[in-house]
């Protein structure tokens, strides 16, 4: 009896997860010492607690420092927990590896379905002011 109940619960969860498509989008502009910063690598992730994070999108900032990331996730049970990472060399005296900064995206910007109707605007991010770590493998 317990096995049958477990199978039914699993099937119910799979049915819910199949329909649980969520989309998140973030836009912004990067500057280094007040000037547009082009070529920074940006990655959008679904920040998972137990499993490795799921990469949803990746772009480089353009000549004006602008970026836009949009990604879609299908979680089993939980809603998406989005974040984006910025990898750059702004202010680096010896360009070994890159700096990495992470930003959580508030849950209110996670959209149900495959369209992003509520985009997170990260505004202008001055890279010299960020809390950052070094990252040699990204």
List the keywords.
1 helix; Immunoglobulin-like; 138 residues; 45% strand; 5-stranded mixed beta sheet; 10 strands; 5-stranded antiparallel beta sheet; mainly beta
Describe this structure in words.
InterPro entries: Transthyretin-like (IPR001534), Transthyretin-like_sf (IPR038479). One of its GO terms (cellular component) is cell surface. The chain has one domain: Immunoglobulin-like. The chain is built from one helix and ten strands, in the order αββββββββββ. The chain has one helix at residues 2-19; strands at residues 21-32, 35-36, 41-46, 54-60, 66-74, 82-88, 98-104, 111-112, 120-126, 133-135. The strands form two sheets. Strands 1, 2, 5, 8 and 9 form a five-stranded mixed beta sheet that branches. A hairpin with a 7-residue loop joins β3 (41-46) and β4 (54-60).
What is the topological layout?
Layout: H1 2-19, E1 21-32, E2 35-36, E3 41-46, E4 54-60, E5 66-74, E6 82-88, E7 98-104, E8 111-112, E9 120-126, E10 133-135
Parallel strand pairs: 1-9
Antiparallel strand pairs: 1-2, 1-5, 1-8, 3-4, 3-6, 6-7, 7-10
Keywords: Secreted, Signal
Family: Belongs to the nematode transthyretin-like family.
Signal peptide: 1-19
CATH architecture assignment name: Sandwich
- Described by the principal axes of the CA atoms, the overall outline is globular
Structural class: mainly beta
Largest sheet: 5 strands, mixed
First-to-last CA distance: 48 Å
